[in-house]
Amino acid sequence: NPKFQKIFKKVDELKPDFIQVLAEAVEIPAVSADESLRPMVIKKAHFLVDKLKQLGFEDIQLKELGVQPPPVNDPKLQLPPVVLSRYGNDPSKKTVLVYGHYDVQPASIEDGWDSEPFKLVVDEEKQLLKARGSTDDTGPLTGWLHVVRAHQEAGIELPVNLLTCFEGMEESGSLGLEKLIGQEADKYFKDVDAVCISDNYWLGTKKPVLTYGLRGCNYYQVTINGPGADLHSGIFGGVIAEPMVDLVQVLSSLVDSKGKILIKGIDEMVAPVTEKEMKLYEDIDFSLEELEEASGSKTALYEKKEDILMHRWRFPSLSVHGVEGAFSSQGAKTVIPAKVSGKFSIRTVPDMDSAKLTKLVIDHCNSVFEKLGSPNTIHAELIHDGNYWVSDPFNAQFTAAAKATKEVYGVDPDFTREGGSIPITLTFEEQLKTSVLLLPMGRGDDGAHSINEKLDISNFIGGIKTMVAYLHYYAESPEN
Amino acid sequence: NPKFQKIFKKVDELKPDFIQVLAEAVEIPAVSADESLRPMVIKKAHFLVDKLKQLGFEDIQLKELGVQPPPVNDPKLQLPPVVLSRYGNDPSKKTVLVYGHYDVQPASIEDGWDSEPFKLVVDEEKQLLKARGSTDDTGPLTGWLHVVRAHQEAGIELPVNLLTCFEGMEESGSLGLEKLIGQEADKYFKDVDAVCISDNYWLGTKKPVLTYGLRGCNYYQVTINGPGADLHSGIFGGVIAEPMVDLVQVLSSLVDSKGKILIKGIDEMVAPVTEKEMKLYEDIDFSLEELEEASGSKTALYEKKEDILMHRWRFPSLSVHGVEGAFSSQGAKTVIPAKVSGKFSIRTVPDMDSAKLTKLVIDHCNSVFEKLGSPNTIHAELIHDGNYWVSDPFNAQFTAAAKATKEVYGVDPDFTREGGSIPITLTFEEQLKTSVLLLPMGRGDDGAHSINEKLDISNFIGGIKTMVAYLHYYAESPEN
Ligand SMILES: [Zn+2]
Ligand SMILES: [Zn+2]
Ligand SMILES: [Zn+2]
Ligand SMILES: [Zn+2]
Predict the structure, then answer these.
(1) Of A10, A162, A223, B1, whose CB has the highest number of CB atoms within 10 Å?
(2) Regions of chain A where pLDDT drops below 70
(3) CATH class of the domain defined by A2-214+389-476
(4) What is the pLDDT of residues B343-361, one digit of tens each?
(5) Can you state the percent helix, strand and coil of chain A, rounding each to 5?
(6) C-alpha distance from A273 to closest chain B C-alpha (Å)
């Protein structure tokens, strides 16, 4: 295909420029979970607006979402804006809405990064780009801008009208976005034929994938409240009920070391595995070794490929993330923390009902706490939830993306689900009544949400090319 | 006593000066647990040297203790120096060594302080001094300097030779001090007749006390090591053994919510309560209400005064302080932490043997972990330990201090023990073969180690006067 060759050549030529844009973008520490960094999140939105303007995007709107609901320290904290924009307005073309998020997870060099997390390192030897946001999700998000640039420089018309919806709160529950999508469904988004989200990863490190399912995520916080202030363990140890002691009892009752969730009633909500479904898992290219490589350890809970994939994609899991309010630094502080909040989340799958799950979880925590007979008080609550999602992997979009993948990487993609959640996927599908495609750019070992997050240069460039080819194949497809 | 009246009047007149010195001292954030603040700890040592010089102390020596042993981030990290100095060198006088520490606990306004922790707030309404270090231990430490100043301004000779031993690592295990005391026992400290430590608190808020016993403290860290880096719980939740899940199981096996230690073999090491001992507790001025007021809550584990005091002073306790390496901020980070360290400590009492206790603790942790069947690894270790201490409350020093207390406060002090540990007490007693007196300045509700640490102005001034009178009564006492 000479059209693709021409654009792909431009993508290759523009590689240094594309990396430079990524470097500028990740330098802005847009951590949505850190209230003090909120101005940086907003700064990054304006950075994107500038880039969109330069490329000739039109009708650029910064949609304000109002103040962030509690719990917050600053009751007037503004949510970061959603960046809407449009490239092309040809009624004869299909309209594709691309979604990405410009906020990132927290990161600090003290966490163990080899380099400053908010400074892009171009590792020429390993051919990778290292920084917080490189793969999640600044790299893929800016990829869509590079798609337009490559078309422009190659002198080839974009085959679709492209809309952007870039948000700044994804890592903190996409607060306000669902409402905005509902409001814009018949306005800004009214002509959208398809939605494409590039915010997940290949299953492994070699084979490209397209993703048709996601687990949901219900995030909980259980707070134990005791003394009026932190106390000295010498003076109060042994005579005061310690919130941290109660908390570890509650946290230890949630899941065992084999990954089995101990909260009653959850297993019963999970859709049973069918024979046909079982078959699907057999074809996928994956192995225990890939999991071990991605996790950097031999600490897998299962050995068989099918067990691993099913426990990642179609069974719930419970993770304990940490404790807020307790001593958390190096050294030996002899404190009795006055108020501690345990954080844990449950990944959800068909047919779990979020509200019913939350009732089970909160009842469980309260019941375990009550049996302790502690004079402290407990408050278990849902911090945020996002539903699971499953799509049809044989529709027009997925078919176009499969052909695009084959064009760029020379292989058919695996059709996968994901263990992670992108709650907004379901919202787009329901509100815009369109198909949603998950088109990952990075690899399974990119380390999103962990230290030394990276994106391979070949995935960055290959991903941009795949986006290009996907838009063309989808534009040509007879169906919507 | 006209001599006391003259000096006490000077103390009252000099109050603004004394508060000013404290304000300057607490402004230096001398947090010994924070490696990055080590230069501040050292700066505070030099601040004290300047003050000692101004007052005419002689033979001022900054004793270097070498590099801090692992675990440290910086393998060349220097320990803060010990400040030795002498005021007076008259062989006909007794020699009193006073000990204090100029380092402080970590503090940050984000912890919930009403004001900047390293800025002294003089609350005129409540008549208190608020800052990290105000009561622990910068206030009492500088008190000794004010004792000398008051004598000078009153034109009255100090009745003893005064030696100082001010260290900068007390809040981090007094690393290096024990060795130094051993080395100086026959040198700098060779003429010492008595040691006085002002680094603890009244039992309650009204009655002055003298303290003749302390619990020890064995601080442990149990580390669970899993994946090579922090992981995304969406991608790895359910397929990887999570260190945090194992850790809460281990931490939940240590102590129950009623304060009962669950590690086998510990109860058997504790000296039984005698009838005579039981009697002692009956006389002490204390009530459940005071504990509730000091803790700012109704979360006491015992109702009876005797039970409370015995569980604070003569029974062991186990506190869970926190977790290093897990998510610890506000918000909802969906991370699987790769390596987490639980921190807990056991307060020790006669006749617990530290080494034997540590073996019990480590064996317990390993045994609980082994039963989990986790592919992760565990490492339980003692971070530091300090032995318990019990003295004779009727010796010359205690008698002098009791008379001094009566002189200043008009009441006989209660003779108490303490739940906290000042390991160096035992070292002084053993190495210098002298009696050690614990002469507290602050109150039980001062909030050492917690937010809004304070020292009542009346305790600051009353404490200085008590120090004055104690030196005179001890100087006059026939025995050593
Ligand atoms: Zn993302
Ligand atoms: Zn993310
Ligand atoms: Zn202290
Ligand atoms: Zn202290």
Answers:
(1) A162
(2) 479-480
(3) alpha beta
(4) 999 999 999 999 999 999 9
(5) 40, 25, 40
(6) 17
